[in-house]
Records
---
Amino acid sequence: MENKIRRIGILTSGGDAPGMNAAIRAAVRTCAKNGVIAVGIRRGYQGLIHADVLEMTARTVNGITHRGGTVLYTARSEDFMSEAGQHRAAQTCRYLGLDAVICIGGDGTFRGALALSRQGVNVMGIPATIDNDIGCSHYTIGFDTAANTAVEAIDRLADTMQSHERVSVVEVMGRHAGHLAVYVGLAVGATSIIIPEFPYSFERDVIEKIREGRMHDKHHHLIIVAEGVGKCDEICKRIADETGLEARVSIIGYIQRGGSPTARDRDMAARMGHFAVEQLLKGERNQVICYRDSRIVPTPIEEALQMEKNLDAYMYRVAGDIGI
Ligand code: F6P
């Protein structure tokens, strides 16, 4: 693959996240500023296999910063899972004359980017997922917007649940990780937060807290359950059986993935998109653009994929201590 960067492909893959458009715009405009042609690849790696592309200019990305979703569409490509698919995608890159591909998404997207780099394609990853579960980066684009959307929905829910003196069991997205659940749970003042990372005692962490709250004139109890734990119906039934209170399940679901990105997500996306292109122009290859200790920093993609992210235990403890 060429060492000089003249054409950069940009794709979004996996679950969309608010702020992806702002990252696309930043990358396209940084290309334009440096005389590099930006090629939008539609539908992630699936589109790359089939050369589903469009040229993007500074003007074609007008007015997309505030829009949720991704103008490039996204997909979870089965075909790209196989080595044959990866080989075909790399051939497309050569056929299109792409000197590098910027891959925006989560860990699945980065595993795809690594596979592509092993086929000789230069890649750069930008972390964008509402789950915030990427080990190498303290922050992923989309998390703040999703958290705020969930908080707004739960505040509304609390109004009606409080009026009926019910218990709310609310499932928050996050796939296998509880980052979103803990952050949201703390923000809404949850009674309990149930996440996959830490064990919990149903009796001590849910039932006793509800009983104690009742004794102190608390009229609404909010139990946040991470998607990775699930079983909300079961949890709800146990609460009703053991406390005699009415309980209701609400699964916020995909609403959390949509909507106009917050300032934080736009800002992070703009900086990461810009940084990704500048790294390529400097001759850097095969990295993930990360946010660590308030700075944008690159990490080699193989290393990035091996890094693990621990759940913020302090945040979890604070939420537990004040959710009484
Ligand atoms: O990774 C983002 C996410 O929204 C997760 O929170 C969720 O588990 C998953 O994607 C849902 O994926 P899909 O869009 O394929 O149903």
---
Amino acid sequence: MKILFVSLGCDKNLVDSEVMLGLLRDRGHEITNDENQAEVIVVNTCSFIHDAREESIQTILEMAAMKTEGVCRLLIVAGCLAEKYRAEILDELPEVDGVIGTTAYDAVCDVIDRSLAGERVQAFESVDRLPLVKTKRVITTGGYSSYLKIGEGCDKHCTYCIIPKLRGNYRSVPMEYVLEDARMLAASGVTELNIVAQETTTWGKDIYGEKRLHELLRALCRIEGIRWIRLLYCYPEEITDELIEVIRTEPKICHYLDMPIQHSSDRILKRMGRRTSRKELEEVIGKLRREIPDIALRTTLISGFPGETEADQEDLKSFIQTIQFDRLGVFTYSPEEGTPAAAMENQIPEDVKAERRDELMALQQRISEEKTGNMVGKVLKVLVEGRIPEEGIYVGRTYRDAPDVDGYVFLDAEEEIISGDFVTAKITGADEYDLTGEVLYEFTE
Ligand code: F3S
């Protein structure tokens, strides 16, 4: 069959999509991007916040319309929206032929076979199941940079978050599976691994009795072909001295840490169910910067959490000003049905949430501008990702930039560079988020 696959939501979901694509390819199906030729359409959905749900529903509706017009015979809905709203999807969308939950994606081939035979399939397992699939997944991120998922689910139970209901409690992917996945990626030409999970820092605790991310990272560093390893979704209170040491000493690990902290006001952190305080956040960040002076720190924040006052907003502004994050994103709070925060009093009006978000982003923009300005004159390694033909320049990322969420470096180069190559570049200019530079050929491998 010719299969069109649409993946929505986060990078963890994207890894599930790539595994499903691998299984479909192994079964002899053909993956297509051509909507007119697709005989089966699979949509892997997201249900994190209101906007993500809207996008998922809109996509399913568009695909359903396509099904009624074209050659398509099956429409399958997988992922987080299917996990939460399977009954509604089946009741209200007769075009949908099958639904697959977040922990049953390894059944995708079977679901297609049974749906083709006329059954309207519901493939669901306990949200605490961990599918362990040994397949060479289809890399959808460009061939040289990939996400490596080391865990599933979360048991932090922050009061605003629906993820534990959609994805279960935290389960570490055992070391041998992570390493095999990484080796397969390296053998396919991947040079950058971006380590993901709902949270990466407690990896190992559930299966080995203690946190062992540092050991996993050391083993990943030994894989030939891997040049950069980047850590995303680290919980501040779970960062250990061993982890800091491995980032500091292993040359393949980028001096970069994504650490979503959500807020700084102790009152709001408590209401959010976070297990840290402003003082502890300042301490861990201080330690990271002392031990690894060139570390780039990224965080995400939530604006307008229920009960947030002007004083809390001022706290957050002073925190941002003090810490000077290298990268920072802000989301407005979205009440999610079934979470404790959605039932809290003092919900904040949308316009106030947006105003507070904009205020934080404007503050960060000034910090970011200063930070990128400080990079001018520096010599950095750049992973080249492509070329803008009209302008004749190349686009890449430094160790300070994670794919999709951070900035870029725009490079002048006299000789052709192949996407995926690492070059050494001198930074010659900067704006708020991005850099410009020129390739230094004498240092380029
Ligand atoms: Fe969305 Fe599910 Fe990821 S809700 S953000 S796709 S874990």
